[in-house]
Amino acid sequence: MQTRTSGSRYDSEEHMQRADAASDESDLQDSHILEVADHGVDPVPAARRREPAHATPADADDGRMGWRDTLIWCGIPVLIVLLIRIFLIGAYTIPSGSMLDTIQLGDRVFTSKLTPKYFNLHRGDVVVFKDPAHWLNDEGNRASGDHLIKRLIGLPGDVVECAGAGKPVTINGVDINETAYIRPGVEPSSFPFRIHVTPDHVFVMGDNRSNSADSRYHQDDGSNGLVPVGDVSGVALVTYWPLGRMGLLSGHHDVFDKVPDGTAQ
Questions:
Q1: I want to staple 163 with a disulfide (CB 3.0 to 4.6 A). Which of 24, 167, 197, 231 is the partner?
Q2: 126 by DSSP, 3-state: which?
Q3: Which residue range or ranges hold the Peptidase S26 domain (predicted)?
Q4: What is residue 138's predicted lDDT score, i.e. its pLDDT?
């Protein structure tokens, strides 16, 4: 009996020690959780947390940036085209036939605004210019608005003349063969003329000479029918419409290869 009583007492003491140990461990765990919470650490695992369903301010900013990016990418090409159109390229519509067959009625042409602003004009260039002295009162071949289009024949200092009646045009005493651009069956000039091209001016003629009120017809306009270089808006380079006639406009500069520089004042 004493042995059993002693063993029972020992068992009871051991059981109580285990219970105390478990209680201490629980207190330590509770203390740890409280300590963690006090230090601001989230005891809930990240995988169990849910993000709010509504958009954050950062999300809204990303949307606005998307629109800004779209506007930028669309706006830059438009700006480039506008700058090219304003400073480099001119566009004109041809409503009549003084430049047949080189340019047809209704053709649309692009011009380079770099000439004569930055590059020199050459004999043979197809030029668009402002009406120098009310030519449009007699001329149907205007290139949109108050502009006309003709071929440049004489540069400053040149003497341009023709005996008429089918005779060739001469520049500084040299005959030129204009069959490359004059309309077939049309004479270089049906009447005689002789003009000295003054400084800062050019002499122009239409390719359809029988239907072109050009420099020959305006010798009494106060400038002897000449066009101030400052009134030249550009050199026509290409026909872009209609598509079936799209192509480069040639200056046929080889026609003038043998013409010496002019010296007339």
A1: 167
A2: strand
A3: 68-241
A4: 61
Residue with tokens 């004059």: 182
Active-site residue 150, yes or no? yes
In a domain, 27, yes or no: no
Q: Active site residue: 96, 112, 150, 189, which one?
A: 150
Low-confidence ranges of the chain (pLDDT < 50): 1-12, 15, 19, 21-22, 25-41, 43-44, 46-48, 51-58, 60
Nearest to 112 by CA among 133, 92, 138, 131: 92
For residue 245, give its domain range.
89-256
The overall longest dimension of the chain from CA atoms, in Å, is 160
Tell me, what CATH number does 139's domain have?
2.10.109.10
| 119 phi-psi bin (left φ>0, alpha ψ -120 to 50, beta other) | beta
> Closest Cα to residue 211, out of 134, 100, 129?
100
What pLDDT does 7 receive? 44
pTM: 0.71
pLDDT at 20: 52
Catalytic site residue from 96, 98, 189, 212:
98
Flag whether 3 is in a domain. Answer: no
**How many domains is the chain partitioned into structurally?**
1
Q: What is the pLDDT of residue 29?
A: 46
Burial of 170 by CB count in 10 Å (0-12 exposed, 13-18 middle, 19+ buried)? middle
> Does some domain include residue 75?
no
- How many CA atoms, within 13 angstroms, populate the side-chain half-sphere of residue 110? 17
pLDDT at 8: 45
For position 4, what pLDDT does the model report?
43
